[in-house]
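Milestone 3.1: sequence recovery, worked example.
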């Protein structure tokens, strides 16, 4: 079974390109245009016992931000890894994600090929820490 990833972004171009690169890498990818839609899909999948393996979300979105989505998801599960990718640096949120231990903050723009390589390393359990992965892709 392929690893399942949910990608959330209100920018259709980013959503399309991120999904394309992840699918090319062999992942099963679902999309959501905002946090509320993503939460509905994530919780539905969890109820059906086919949970996602990774959530990749933008932070600045209408209806529900990435931060709000992250906080809502954590009410239901602590095990879902979360990558927040945003064009605006939020030091407080980045610290919150780092403290979570299963989440990381990435500053846009990211090189999608390198980002997907990082996702693969994470999914394969390469032993890299979240902090190592995040700092490598941000710099």
């Amino acid at each position: 079974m392929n690893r399942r990833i949910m990608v959330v972004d209100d920018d259709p171009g980013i959503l399309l390109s991120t999904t394309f690169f992840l699918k090319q890498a062999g992942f099963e990818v679902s999309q959501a245009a905002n946090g509320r839609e993503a939460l509905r899909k994530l919780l539905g999948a969890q109820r059906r016992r086919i949970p996602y393996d990774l959530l990749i979300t933008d932070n600045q979105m209408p209806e529900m931000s990435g931060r709000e989505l992250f906080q809502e998801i954590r009410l239901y599960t602590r095990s879902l890894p979360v990558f927040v990718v945003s064009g605006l640096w939020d030091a407080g949120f980045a610290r919150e994600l780092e403290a979570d231990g299963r989440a990381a903050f990435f500053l846009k723009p990211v090189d999608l090929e390198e980002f997907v390589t990082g996702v693969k390393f994470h999914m394969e359990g390469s032993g890299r820490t979240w902090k190592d992965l995040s700092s490598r892709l941000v710099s």
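The chain is about 50% helix and 15% strand. Confidence is low (pLDDT under 50) at residues 133-139.
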